[in-house]
Amino acid sequence: VFWPASDPCPFVSLQAAAGILCYIGAYVFITYDDYDHFFEDVYTLIPAVVIIAVGTLLFIIGVIGCCATIRESSCGLATFAAILLLVFVTECVVVVLGYIYRAKVEDEVNHSIQKVYNEYSGPNTDAPSRAIDYVQRQLHCCGIHNYSDWRNTRWFKESKNNSVPVSCCQPNINNCTGTLTRPADLYQEGCEALVVKKLKEIMMYVIWAALTFASIQMLGMLCACVVLCRRSHDPAYELLVTTNSYA
């Protein structure tokens, strides 16, 4: 299991892995940005930050490897294995942090969502209000536990029209105004549970990505160690590799 000196495939693979990791990290950032008003702990994004950093590191290693391919030497293999070990440990940290912050998502949302709904001031008026309308349309939900929660909000009491935001209206209902006199027109499920579910799903993407690439890098380290052992204990293998290098 060895690559020729002129073959940049291992480093191209690193670049591919780097691209996938950075894409996943960016996806988490973009998606969390839509829900950032529902949690206050910015440290929840640490796993995404780390996974982007790992992806950037792998990309740099891949570029360097493609430009100046590591020769078939014990030093090169040892360096390659050490880098993979560093990345492997980092990805294990990402998995642990992912599970920790995934467990905290529900408490964060429960703590923040009531405050966000109380700050609602109407469609397209400010960021929290737009966030609520976006979530209700995207997740097909209304209110915290159900549409009746809107009765307790400041916006509902001040508007005095016995209506909820039109973002609560089901898309297949024509001329829906959000009035509570026609509750069948509204989404029946509350947003709190769906927001928690969505954020946990996003965190699981990070966890599974880190686990997958950590497993692949473990195999890479094992292959490198096997070759190192064969080179150090088998003179014939050393001669064969040296001959192939000059061929």
Textual characterization of the structure:
The protein has 247 residues and is mainly α. The chain has a domain at 103-210: Tetraspanin (Cd81 Antigen, Extracellular Domain, Chain: A), CATH 1.10.1450.10. 68% of the residues lie in helices and 0% in strands. The chain has seven helices and no strands. The chain has helices spanning 9-35, 46-67, 74-118, 127-139, 154-159, 191-233, 235-246. Helix 1 (9-35) packs antiparallel against helix 6 (191-233) and helix 2 (46-67) packs antiparallel against helix 3 (74-118). The longest helix is centred in the middle third of the chain and has 45 residues, at 74-118. The radius of gyration is 26 Å and the shape is elongated. The two termini are 19 Å apart. The model is unreliable at 1-8 and 236-247 (pLDDT under 50).
Write the layout of secondary structure elements.
Layout: H1 9-35, H2 46-67, H3 74-118, H4 127-139, H5 154-159, H6 191-233, H7 235-246
Helix pairs in contact: 1-2, 1-6, 2-3, 3-6
Average pLDDT works out at 76
Strand content: under 5%
User: What name does CATH use for the topology of one domain?
Assistant: Cd81 Antigen, Extracellular Domain, Chain: A
Low-confidence stretches: 1-8, 236-247
Give the CATH architecture of one domain.
Answer: Orthogonal Bundle
Could you state the CATH homologous superfamily of one domain?
Tetraspanin
Radius of gyration: 26 Å
Structural class call reads: mainly alpha
CATH class of one domain: Mainly Alpha
Q: How does the major sheet shape up? A: none
**Strands, total number:** 0
Q: What is the overall shape?
A: elongated
Distance between the termini: 19 Å
Q: What are the secondary-structure elements, in order, as H or E?
A: HHHHHHH
Helix content: 55-70%
Number of distinct helices: 7
Subcellular location: Membrane
Subunit structure: Interacts with claudin-11/CLDN11 and integrins.
Protein name: Tetraspanin-3
Keywords: Glycoprotein, Membrane, Transmembrane, Transmembrane helix
